[in-house]
Amino acid sequence: MRASLVHNPGQLRVADPVQFRGHRGGVISMHRALTHFRLGPMNIIASLCLFLLFFSIWVVVLPWLCRIWHSALAMGLRFLPLNARLDVAEHHFRFLNLQIPYLRMEPILPDLQTWSLTCAVTLLLFTGTFFLSTKLIPVVYLARGILLIQGTSLIYFALWPTSFPHTPDSYMEALVASGIGLISVIPLLLALTYYIFDFGLLRKAALTAMTMTHLAIFLPFQVLAQALVLQKTVLFMPVLYIVAGMPVDILLIIAFYSWGMTWPFRRRGDNGGHESSFSALRTSAGRWMRRVSNAILQPTNAG
Fold first, then answer.
1. How far is CA 137 from CA 127, 130, 141, 254, 288, in A?
2. What is the DSSP track for the chain?
3. At 98, phi and psi to the nearest 5?
4. pLDDT in tens, 11-40
């Protein structure tokens, strides 16, 4: 029994044990992550050092990585049916000079045939969601949300087609820049949400490296896939931005984080633990200080 009711007003009232049971009467145990949450001084120092290490590596590698992305996009233009050209946007920081590659293409407004066909397909798919099984409710709501975004785009381009403020050039540049920014904050994000748990330095470093590497490899493919759609018409830019842009990258980070949280925690008795190292260091320092004080006070006592 995790808790019990206390009827004595002079004592602290404990929560009702019913709140710790599920709808079938079973006890809801504490989450396994919370049972291994030990945020000691050495754990904080190790997390900070790990964050600084990966952020420093990222800053050093980023200019070289931009050149790799440039080569990947150039190869995509060579082998894919893309009507675009490769350009570079220069961004200067105090100690960093980045040449971010992106694709440039002409903004093509939807003609009557494209608009009508897209509208018919959108209405057909939206109607089809009402005939899906109730077991697919999450899929149904996700599909309806995506179709509603496309529907608003259809209405906008039907009423104000020439006042659309965005171009494929600016969108492609922002897509690459936002991807770089998101990868840059991964060490800080994991330091605040993953390093605080007792997984050990090796697992923390492995998860950070795999997440950043995966997103760095995924970015040029994401740009090329969206360029294949945007070269037809800007009618699909809103749904690409809201659904296939930053949300996809965030879902990848969540997937890696969820996978990392299933890894086994470091055993409490490991010799390489941060807390045991801190305790041993504190004991040694105390013993050394006692020896020094004894050495200073011994001549005085002898006199």
1. 14, 10, 6, 22, 67
2. --------TTSPPPPPGGGGB-TTS-B-PPPHHHHT----HHHHHHHHHHHHHHHHHHHHHHHHHHHHHHHHHHHHHHHS----EEEEEEEE-SS-EEEEEEEE-------HHHHHHHHHHHHHHHHHGGGS-GGGHHHHHHHHHHHHHHHHHHHHHHH-GGG----HHHHHHHHHHHHHHHHHTHHHHHHHHTTTSSS-HHHHHHHHHHHHHHHHHHHHHHHHHHHHHHTT-GGGHHHHHHTTTHHHHHHHHHHHHHHHHTSPPPPTT-TT-HHHHHHHHHHHHHHHHHHHHHHHHHHHHH-
3. -110, 140
4. 445 455 666 666 666 666 655 555 556 666
Read off the pLDDT of residues 81-100 as tens digits, 9 standing for 90 and up. 999 999 999 888 777 888 99
Instruction: Scan for tokens 């906008």, then name that residue.
Output: 156
Measured between alpha carbons, how far is 16 from 69 in angstroms, rounded to an integer? 58
